[in-house]
Amino acid sequence: MKSDASVFVIDDDAAVRDSLIVLLRGEGMRARAFASGVDFFNQMPEDRTACVITDVRMPGLDGGEVVRRLAAMPDRSWAMIVITGHADVATAVQLMKLGIVDFIEKPIDPARLVDTVRGVLGRIGEDTLRRDRRQAIRGRLGTLTPRERQVFDDLVEGLSNKAIAQRLSISPRTVEIFRARVMEKMAADNLSALVRMGLAVAAD
């Protein structure tokens, strides 16, 4: 799946940094480089979704600290990939526990890196679509009256019109009227679509 998310490369080795940028841009990805963790946070990108590729061993602010700081930012959905030398594998494994997607040992295999980043960007794109869909559903839910919301919840629960009428102490005909309003406000073509909306927001 295509994603418009950026890829940020953080590495103090100019040759590695430049080669990765050329590689990623050559694959059609939006890529930007930073010479250090300090530079990255001083010029903090505003992207809410992104893929960050960071070396582990860097002066000033190492890759581990970069990962820890990004992991502590709940307002951003940034996938993290760590580049490591053979001696840093144990460190990279510890960083996996902080949520990094993968660690790639040097010398870097270009094909593996591209495949990994493509996979990350694909998941970011899917996650973004799901999040946007949930936000749209929640917005529509906000337009329902309290009674309409009760009918929505009961429909999602799988109750029949008759069962909803008994639960709410109203007539089946009134339930039908509320149901029609709910379907219209939620922009649901059918009951199946309405149930999927309910399940989507319930998964949050």
- Shape type: elongated
Count of domains: 2
> Can you say what the CATH homologous superfamily of the largest domain is?
Response regulator
CATH architecture annotation name of the largest domain: 3-Layer(aba) Sandwich
Keywords:
five-stranded parallel beta sheet; 2 domains; 9 helices; Arc Repressor Mutant, subunit A; Rossmann fold
List the helices and strands and how they pair.
Blueprint lengths: L5 E5 L3 H13 L4 E4 L2 H6 L6 E7 L7 H9 L5 E8 L4 H8 L5 E4 L4 H32 L4 H12 L3 H8 L3 H14 L5 H12 L2
Parallel strand pairs: 1-2, 1-3, 3-4, 4-5
Helix pairs in contact: 5-9, 6-8, 6-9, 7-8
What do you see in this structure?
The chain is α/β, with parallel strands linked by helices and 204 residues long. The chain contains nine helices and five strands, in the order βαβαβαβαβααααα. It has two domains: 6-132, 3-Layer(aba) Sandwich (Rossmann fold), CATH 3.40.50.2300; 142-202, Arc Repressor Mutant, subunit A (Orthogonal Bundle), CATH 1.10.10. Strands 2-1-3-4-5 form a five-stranded parallel beta sheet, with helices on both faces.
Summarize the structure in short.
This protein has 204 residues and is α/β, with parallel strands linked by helices. The protein has 2 domains: 6-132, Rossmann fold; 142-202, Arc Repressor Mutant, subunit A, CATH 1.10.10.10. The protein is built from 9 helices and 5 strands.
